[in-house]
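Here is one chain, start to finish.
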Amino acid sequence: MKFEDALAYLDAHASYDKTGRIESPTLDRMTALVAAMGDPQHAFPVIHITGTNGKGSTTQMITRLLMAHGLTVGTYTSPHLERLNERMSVNCEPISDDDFAEQIAAVADLEVITGVRPTYFEAVTAAAYRWFADVAVDVAVIEVGLLGRWDATNVCTAQVAVITNIGADHMEFAGPTLENIAHEKAGIIKPSSAVVIGETNPELVGIFRNAGGATALVRGDDFDVVEQQLALGGRLMDLRTPTTVYPEVFVPLHGQHQCSNAVVALTAVETFFAAPVPGDIVAEGFADVRMPGRFEVMGHQPLVIIDGAHNPPGADSCATVFFDDFDPAGRRLLVVGCLKGRDPREMLAALRADEFDVVFTCTAPTPRGLPAEELTAAARDVGCDVVLEFDTVENAIDAALAGASAEDAVLITGSLYIVGAARPHLRDVIA
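Its structure:
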């Protein structure tokens, strides 16, 4: 099987990314598939991460801290920005096209042998577990795709289960309350799991405490951010964990919310080793963290920023960083698209769209993309004075850049699909 054949195989299978629907919630298909592989997900210890926002950043921080210890680390994330290979990496190097094709070919063969037809995400997840076992990683850092209990990643048994936070997202699958969402995410907790809880709402914390894990550590009680401040290129913070206080930890990511992610990640790594992390390891690990598509600066004159905020809490964090940390001197231009199933007015309100001088709406490049005309109507409803509508992300970006001076700032956001299209286009058009 060639790489193109592997992509074609996946495209022929049911995909949440395309349909916005989940096939009947069950782990039966995934369990049968990995069993036929010899259960590769049990060949290495796992740190399993779920939450509404911050999963990706926390996953990368944990990965870098483990790598700084000298471990070989397999990392599984979703979705990808530009290439599917990004979803699985070893020591932050994405799987090669040839290796990816080999792993998907194994899944395809097992589909024929077992009669189990996996979904797109199940096939990719099984391939990742098999590849990590083949490579013999020392540890795998696994990001949940959707919620937790029925997620394909949840055939593993986590040594450390991490909950970043709980917010109102994917309510169509787990609502109508935050408690319902918490119960679904708590499904990754196994009897042998140590649980690191970044959520602070007492009622939600109680759900995770009572989910049957071996131990539980809670932000605010057992660990927390002591102090934090804006620094050149990121945040500088003092972090308290169950064992010690780590002073002046620098993380090269923007936004106060990254401080919360950092202390959760550091506590998770401490818990994994059952020991404090040496200060030089902390400094090295955090210094190497990179998060493409998360408040990523792509240009400076004008300032061009992309951020994959895809729900109101993420949009709120994005707007806070943009207006408070960067405080652009010139005009503020917003390029935005989002997915069906989101309330566009709620998203635009969280982004503070009415504070932008011009809003450029577009349709996200996915069958799940909300039509630009609906987003335009929502923008006018929330008080945006100047709204321009475009059919593609690229055309919206071109229009924004054409009208921007060197002192202006352009924010491109609303969905990872928007960011995934924006990144390669910006590399081409920004010198």
